From TrEMBL, chain A:
Gene Ontology biological process terms from the UniProt entry: malate metabolic process; tricarboxylic acid cycle
Protein name in UniProt: Malate dehydrogenase
Taxonomic lineage from the root: Eukaryota, Viridiplantae, Streptophyta, Embryophyta, Tracheophyta
Record InterPro entries: L-lactate/malate_DH (IPR001557), Lactate/malate_DH_C (IPR022383), Lactate/malate_DH_N (IPR001236), Lactate_DH/Glyco_Ohase_4_C (IPR015955), Malate_DH_AS (IPR001252), Malate_DH_NAD-dep_euk (IPR011274), Malate_DH_type2 (IPR010945), NAD(P)-bd_dom_sf (IPR036291)
Family statement drawn from the similarity comment of this UniProt entry: Belongs to the LDH/MDH superfamily. MDH type 2 family.
Annotated catalysed reactions: (S)-malate + NAD(+) = oxaloacetate + NADH + H(+)
Family matches, as NCBIfam families: MalateDH-SF1, MDH_euk_cyt, PRK05442.1
Pfam family name, one: Ldh_1_C
Limits of the Lactate/malate dehydrogenase C-terminal domain: 157-315
Enzyme Commission designation: 1.1.1.37
Active site per UniProt: H187
Keyword Ion transport applies: no
Automatic annotation (TrEMBL), chain B:
EC number(s) from the headed UniProt entry: 1.1.1.37
Species assigned in the record: Brassica carinata
Residue ranges constituting the Lactate/malate dehydrogenase N-terminal domain according to the UniProt record: 46-192
Pfam families: Ldh_1_C, Ldh_1_N
Annotated ranges, domain Lactate/malate dehydrogenase C-terminal: 196-365
PROSITE patterns (alphabetical): MDH (PS00068)
Name the UniProt record assigns to this protein: Malate dehydrogenase
Residues at the active site: H227
UniProt similarity note: Belongs to the LDH/MDH superfamily. MDH type 2 family.
Positions contributing to NAD(+) binding: G51, A52, A53, G54, N55, I56, G57, D82, N145, V169, A170, N171
Length: 321, 373
């Protein structure tokens, strides 16, 4: 017997990440090959015609799993009954804009988005914020949608996670599916013919691992923009699917992934921030992998990023006042 | 053991049987476990995508890498080809594919060298072509594309794998495929096809929408002819699955015969233009998806009782002149397609099918005249 369809909302659906993401959802990549879906696509009024064009193409593709498409510029209609919400819509930074301006615009978007989701989404709706600044947008969403359980509000860091796996797999010339458990290289492992080996041992180049590798991953987004003249859409969409799929269907045994989640103080990361942690997922819930040893280099970097998130939080709140 | 009465004997037998079943069950589980350990991953298949830095390429690459085209357990190596001016964008596509950590994607070759791109490929999806620009005459577009597909033909013939399956997407798709076939004589002609699956999917979806049923309930629409405005979307053999079995679509639409013969046909024929009006760009998502469907069904077989539309080399079936690449209803099995024979063709259909064949003959003549110049 066929499953009941799941409603998936994609905001900013007329943009290029949306265009890459919707066929992936409709093919079952996000929720599994036997899970029918109804897509809710939301965008702003200037994009209404383009949005309708995307709806037409989704219909033209005759996807067996796609049981309906709602294409709308009305946030209430967009959010009604949704079980999964992928928030791609946001205000991108334009040349000459100050960080405060970008923050200010996105903060008001996510405040109103929060109200709509809280009132109209299905209970237990799982939320993934993609639009940058992702962590802080997710935090704002959480603050203004208090009845959405805080564990249901996450942000995308799976793209960075996947990029790191890609870099390691290339460095070691191994298939990317053999590299796993990456929140950082200290815990990552590679499946070899003689069992699992730590990445540090196989790479044998701490200088690269502590230096160039990290900066390559950190700046990969900019490298893509330089080459494409547009930001990553294909890989962002794919990672968003991975994030939701593992959250809903569970992570494979013995594997952990990275998700931006509400900090509970684990690893001395201040609570009250949306911070990327290593997690495993089971029965539709994520839990932070505990007990990983943290060396001095890692501690410094982890604290640095927590600092930055605290500053962003303060900036966001000042915009709202 | 002492036997005390018949009942004890039965208990003994039941106990022994249960122990035996338990042992068999455990042994079976062990065998399955060992077999899984030994499961050897399939050899990767090489898939070429030309025009890979463009919009359709960007949409199709992740679809292929996720297993939509070849199945969830078939690894692949992607060969991405585009022209020199697009080499930076092409490199960025390769980077994004790496960044996605696709388990099935065992390698990416991004190149502007056609020979390197064609080397050992088992599947070739030819999206690259010369797009019509404003003010261009049909002859100009045809001329540019005929030259491109002639060159593509040589490279594929020399370097691709012997069993290479080719799908031409770039328009004029049928005639580009024909030129390819003419200049790659050692590629078996049954391995050269063009995409009409997009029109087929559009027709299926439009019919499902009219009937108010899920798209997967509708099957066996046909798109005949040229992937152009003379294509003929034919519902006379389409069926809809209902609680009482498969019913002919035209019986369910008895009051809409006029619609089936008029608006339905023009809507499907002009859908491409409608998308361009809304998006300001031509269809990429649905074209990429249809290309995956075309290869998937060709490679893995059509579901029983279902046929699909493919642009293939005509063998004279249904009175269509051989020597044209024409869209027919086909079923696919064991990696080969076969035209569905014996379908009744009424007068209305006959006229439309012949119109499209005539247009293809004209395109063929035009293409050849361009090549002789």
């Amino acid at each position: 017997m066929a499953k009941e369809p799941v409603r998936v909302l994609v905001t900013g659906a007329a943009g290029q990440i949306g265009y890459a993401l919707v066929p992936m959802i409709a093919r079952g990549i996000m929720l599994g090959a036997d899970q029918p879906v109804i897509l809710h696509m939301l965008d702003i009024p200037p994009a209404a015609e383009a949005l309708n064009g995307v709806k037409m193409e989704l219909i033209d593709a005759a996807f067996p799993l796609l049981k309906g498409v709602v294409a709308t510029t009305d946030a209430v209609e967009g959010c009604t009954g949704v079980n999964v919400a992928v928030m791609v819509g946001g205000f991108p930074r334009k040349e000459g804009m100050e960080r405060k301006d970008v923050m200010s615009k996105n903060v008001s978007i996510y405040k109103s988005q929060a109200a709509a989701l809280e009132k109209h989404a299905a209970p237990n709706c799982k939320v993934l914020v993609v639009a940058n600044p992702a962590n802080t947008n997710a935090l704002i969403l959480k603050e203004f949608a208090p009845s959405i359980p805080e564990k249901n509000i996450t942000c995308l860091t799976r793209l960075d996670h996947n990029r790191a796996l890609g870099q390691i797999s290339e460095r070691l010339s191994v298939p990317v599916s053999d590299v796993k458990n990456y929140p950082d290289v200290n815990h990552a492992k590679v499946q070899t013919s003689s069992g699992e080996k730590p990445v540090r041992e196989l790479v044998k180049n701490d200088e690269w691992l502590n230096g160039e590798f990290i900066t390559t991953v950190q700046q990969r987004g900019a490298a893509i923009i330089k080459a494409r003249k547009l930001s990553s859409a294909l890989s962002a969409a794919s990672s968003a699917c991975d994030h939701i799929r593992d959250w809903v269907l569970g992570t494979p045994e013995g594997t952990f992934v990275s998700m931006g989640v509400y900090s509970d103080g684990s690893y001395n990361v201040p609570s009250g921030l949306i911070y990327s942690f290593p997690v495993t997922c089971r029965n539709g819930e994520w839990s932070i992998v505990q007990g990983l040893p943290i060396d001095e280099v890692s501690r410094k970097k982890m604290d640095l990023t927590a600092e930055e998130l605290k500053e962003e939080k303060d900036l966001a709140y000042s915009c709202l006042s | 053991m002492e036997l005390v009465g018949g009942e004890v004997h039965y208990t003994f037998v039941i106990q022994k049987t249960m122990v035996l079943l338990l042992c068999v069950g455990l042994a079976w589980k062990m065998i399955v476990y060992m077999c899984n350990l030994l499961k050897i991953e399939k050899e990767p298949i090489r898939v070429l995508v030309t025009g890979a830095a463009g919009n359709i390429g960007y949409a199709i690459a992740p679809m292929i890498a996720r297993g939509v085209m070849l199945g969830p357990d078939q690894p692949m190596i992607l060969h991405l080809l585009d022209i020199e001016p697009a080499s930076k964008s092409l490199e960025a596509v390769k980077m994004e594919l790496q960044d996605s950590a696709f388990p099935l994607l065992h390698g990416v070759i991004a190149t502007t060298n056609v020979n390197e791109a064609c080397k050992d490929v088992n599947i070739a999806v030819l999206i690259g072509g010369y797009a019509r620009k404003e003010g261009m005459e049909r002859k100009d577009v045809m001329s540019k594309n005929a030259a491109i597909y002639k060159a593509q033909a040589s490279a594929l013939e020399r370097y691709a794998s012997d069993d290479c399956k080719v799908l031409v997407v770039a328009n004029p798709a049928n005639t580009n495929a024909l030129v390819l076939k003419e200049f790659a004589p050692s590629i078996p002609e049954e391995n050269i096809t063009c995409l009409t699956r997009l029109d087929h999917n559009r027709a299926q979806a439009r019919l499902a929408e009219k009937l108010g049923v899920p798209v997967s309930s509708v099957k066996n629409v046909i798109v005949w002819g040229n992937h152009s405005s003379t294509q003929y979307p034919d519902t006379s053999h389409a069926t809809v699955s209902t609680k009482t079995g498969d019913q002919p679509a035209k019986e369910l639409l008895v009051a809409d015969q006029k619609w089936l013969k008029n608006e339905f046909i023009t809507e499907v024929q002009q859908r491409g233009a409608e998308i361009i009006r809304a998006r300001k760009q031509s269809s990429a998502l649905s074209a990429a998806s249809a290309a995956c469907d075309h290869i998937h069904d060709w490679f893995l077989g059509t579901p029983k009782g279902n046929w699909v539309s493919m642009g293939v080399c005509s063998d004279g079936s249904y009175g269509i002149p051989p020597g044209l690449v024409y869209s027919f209803p086909v079923i696919c099995e064991k990696g080969s397609w076969k035209i569905v024979q014996g379908l009744s063709i009424d007068e209305f259909s006959r006229e439309k099918m012949d119109d499209s064949a005539r247009e293809l003959a004209e395109e063929k003549a035009l293409a050849y005249s361009c090549l002789n110049v």
